[in-house]
Amino acid sequence: MKNPVRPPSFYPLRPEKPSEIASSERRVSKFALVASKPIGIIFLGRLGRFIVSSSLCMRSLPIVDNQQAASLPVESLIASGKRGTYAFISLGCPKNLVDSEQMLGILHQDGYQLVQDPEQSDFVVINTCGFIDSARKESLQAIDQMLELKRSGKIRGVVVTGCLAERQHEKLLEVRPEIDGLVGVFGRDEISHLVGRIMDGLDEQRTIFRPAPVRALSDHLRLQVTPPHFAYLKISEGCDRLCTFCAIPRMRGKHASKPMDDVLVEAQRLADRGVRELIIVAQDTTYYGMDMFGEPRLRELLEKLDEVEGIDWIRLMYFYPMYINDALISTIASAKRILPYIDMPLQHINNTMLKRMARRVTRESTYEQVSKLRERIPNLVMRTTMISGFPGETDEQADELEAFVEEMHFERLGVFTYSIESDTPAAKLDGHLPERVKKERRNRLMAIQQANAFAWCERQIGKALPVLIDKAVEGTDNVWLGRSYADAPDVDACVYVTESPGSPLKAGDLINCEIVSFKDYDLVGVALESTPAYARG
């Protein structure tokens, strides 16, 4: 049987060299335009996989199309007695996307109509990312593009929300006074109040900023804009870690868990809408429950989520390498629905670097933690990130990190070059390195990781893996894009699947697939049957 072949248009969008892979490996480089008929999500994805849309009035961006918002039929997005029309741009991480979905739900509930083309809207909402310099530039570019539409008279207002708004507050209005409104991270549920003033021509209050809540905000009104078969489930907000390189606590506040009953209700609601894969996200997943119970309760939450009917896969993201005890590992290893996949950013392995980063872990504890997870969870796939060129990193410490990556054989790994953030403690450290050195070290790490990843792909040939089908590959009759248990959306690789004769596939199918080949980081396989696959890898 011939192996399915990827259309030629995919090849230039896939990074081929380690340096290109590393440069695209950024958690902040996702760009989403959410609209109706059809709902569109625009990504500048980490692996550059997505197809450029020429239909947008904005700058051309890679776009992934969803048929509709999964939680509401498209026709219901045209709200009766509508108060106005809007377009929505969502940037940043999956946690920010959940905030976008909540704001979309609120605006829909209050009678605003979502439209595809910003030029056909009354106002545009931009939910920004402010994590590092490249993310801020991306956010500012989007803001400037929408302000240009306002100057030309095509839209009435521009509202900026999210992390950049929270981080810069009124300073953002000083440099871009044409912005009509700013909504901080924790003011998101009041967005309709500000939008209403804009629509009424009032400008006496242009900002909504609220203190971080004691408990994570509810997301029960969210309008899901991921494909119908997967969704992100945010279980907590904020972070208590205070890593010296990170500004997230300044933007997102201290750790605040979402009440367990609320998480479970939300999970069941998503399952009832047809979601098959829940992707658990937080700033610090393993810390869940500490603020409510005085000790982490992630194990208890996962045990209850594992019983939610209708869910096939539960994927764990944003683990911190602390509070992972034997009981939690046993729960993951024995679960029915929890995938043997853990995303756990480690950042470095050298003890001096870890101390300067204020990570509160050591080389020894990290080795012990990773080894224990490997031993106890069969078929475990681990995703992690590292920082190259942190202030004071010596050649010997960089070599130590390279040796660690080579030894650990992480299936998925990305590298950030250290980004100076002026309002973080790391900015004041001595020993800042030239960009050239940071990039050289990043490229060496990614070259090592490329060999690790290709070796893992080769070991999958001949295996039957469960694959969740995401979408058809354009330009083909029977080739689909899917993900195995080893692949989180956007950040990881994918599986190209050829239909078996007489068994047509559709998005959302979970099927067994024989892996017959691989191309770069992606697996290539053939659907065995149209029968449902088992959940775990």
Largest sheet: 7 strands, mixed
Distance between the termini: 25 Å
Low-confidence spans: 1-70
Helix content: 25-40%
- Average of per-residue pLDDT values: 85
Total number of helices: 15
Structural class: alpha/beta
From the spread of the alpha carbons, the general shape counts as globular
- From the alpha-carbon coordinates, what is the Rg to the nearest angstrom? 23 Å
Beta-strand percent range: 15-25%
DSSP, total strands = 23
Short description:
With 537 residues, this protein is α/β, with parallel strands linked by helices. It is 30% helix and 22% strand.
Structure commentary:
The chain is of the alpha/beta class. Helix content is 30%, strand content 22%. The chain contains 15 helices and 23 strands. It has helices spanning 18-24, 94-109, 133-151, 163-168, 170-175, 191-199, 248-252, 260-272, 290-293, 298-305, 326-334, 351-356, 363-376, 395-408, 435-460, and strands at 31-34, 40-42, 51-52, 62-65, 84-91, 112-114, 123-128, 157-162, 181-183, 207-208, 230-234, 236-237, 256-257, 277-281, 313-316, 338-343, 381-388, 412-417, 464-472, 479-484, 495-498, 510-519, 522-532. Strands 1, 5, 6, 7, 8, 9 and 10 form a seven-stranded mixed β-sheet that branches. A six-stranded parallel β-sheet has the order 11-14-15-16-17-18. Strands 19-20-21-23-22 form a five-stranded mixed beta barrel. Strand 5 (84-91), helix 2 and strand 6 form a beta-alpha-beta unit. Helix 1 (18-24) packs across helix 15 (435-460), helix 10 packs parallel to helix 11 and helix 14 (395-408) runs parallel beside helix 15. The longest helix is centred in the last third of the chain and has 26 residues, at 435-460. The protein is globular, with a radius of gyration of 23 Å. Residues 1-70 have low confidence and may be disordered.
